[in-house]
Write a structure and sequence with these properties.
The chain is of the alpha/beta class and 197 residues long. It is built from 5 helices and 8 strands. Helix content is 36%, strand content 22%. The strands form 2 sheets. A 6-stranded mixed β-sheet has the order 2-1-3-8-4-7, sandwiched between helices. The mean pLDDT is 92.
């Protein structure tokens, strides 16, 4: 059985109820299905704390697959292809920390996702979700955490499949929590099956 680490985020200014944090609570009640052990955690929307938590979780769990979930603007589910070594958001995080510039001073400009994005996208579309590939994971805590996770994986466990998926906010029936939980499970299953093959 594989170990799968999935993370979401708590609320932040402008997003009073972060759907990814709610999805993580639901996933905590579904620890696995015979193919994987699922470890679901909600990270604070804070640069320092999220970095420390994702690093600690990766080192403690030593997962085979790590999927970070974040929330972006309305639209399709976004499969992020790149984690950029740059924070550009002009608003502070929940701890009041405003960061601009490189995330890792000695790190590369970007890391590619190592999730099987084509397989994940195909599985989501078959399940009725709108999906797009994206090369811009934003300049806030989502991209920051994605980059830190990839940096840790690249340094200590390069065989781990690791990436970021952006969900839309909950705005109508097409993006209900139930729909997002099913989407998350679809992403996980596609990533695990590709990893096993």
């Amino acid at each position: 059985m594989l170990d799968v680490l999935v993370t979401g985020f708590g609320p932040f200014p402008g997003v009073d109820a972060n759907p990814t944090g709610i999805v993580m609570k639901r996933l905590q009640q579904r620890p696995g299905n015979g193919l994987w052990n699922l470890h679901a955690h909600t990270l604070p929307t804070e640069y320092e704390s999220a970095s420390m938590r994702i690093t600690a979780l990766l080192r403690r769990i030593e997962p085979d697959v790590c999927i970070c979930f974040g929330v972006a603007g309305p639209g399709p589910i976004r499969l992020e292809r790149l984690a950029r070594n740059e924070t550009t958001a002009d608003c502070p995080d929940n701890a009041g920390d405003l960061r601009l510039g490189a995330i890792e001073a000695q790190g590369p400009p970007s890391y590619p996702s190592t999730l099987p994005l084509d397989a994940i996208g195909e599985a989501l579309r078959r399940a009725g979700y709108a999906v797009e590939l994206s090369d811009d994971a934003g300049g806030y805590v989502c991209n920051h955490t994605f980059y830190v996770a990839r940096h840790v994986v690249e340094t200590f466990a390069p065989s781990v499949s690791c990436g970021l998926v952006h969900f839309p906010p909950i705005t109508d029936a097409s993006t209900s929590i139930d729909r997002l939980v099913t989407a998350a499970e679809t992403v996980i299953e596609a990533a695990v099956r590709q990893h096993l093959w």
